[in-house]
Amino acid sequence: xxxxxxxxxxxxxxxxxxxxxxxxxxxxxxxxxxxxxxxxxxxxxxxxxxxxxxxxxxxxxxxxxxxxxxxxxxxxxxxxxxxxxxxxxxxxxxxxxxxxxxxxxxxxxxxxxxxxxxxxxxxxxxxxxxxxxxxxxxxxxxxxxxxxxxxxx
Length: 153
Description:
The protein is built from 4 helices and 8 strands. By secondary structure, it is an alpha+beta fold. It has one domain (5-152): PDZ domain (Pdz3 Domain). Strands 1, 2, 3, 4, 5, 6, 7 and 8 form an 8-stranded antiparallel β-sheet that branches. Strand 2 (12-15) and strand 3 (20-24) form a beta hairpin. The radius of gyration is 19 Å and the shape is globular.
């Protein structure tokens, strides 16, 4: 069995085996290294169980870029573990996330494709909100407090 990324309406890509609805990274300057931005994670999919969320950016799987991912094979008899090099948006950091992929899809491929199409219908445009580093913003707020405190004296 192969990890296949198929194009669907609106310029999105669906990876049914991982349960990901992706936006090609070249559409945004923030993923200039060829990554794929996660538009949505399908319910009860391997990536949902691994903790990948919308707005994360996946750069590589098992050290291979997305161009060569189409050639990955999975075991038909036992679960396969893959490692996704990911920019985790909520923590503003790079991480290697292990995804355990069962030997068979979690449900029929037609159902997965229909759910992906329903997500695209509900949210036809990718989220273009800039990524925010929570640590940097906290530090900026702390420095602002100290600068206001110094002016009072």
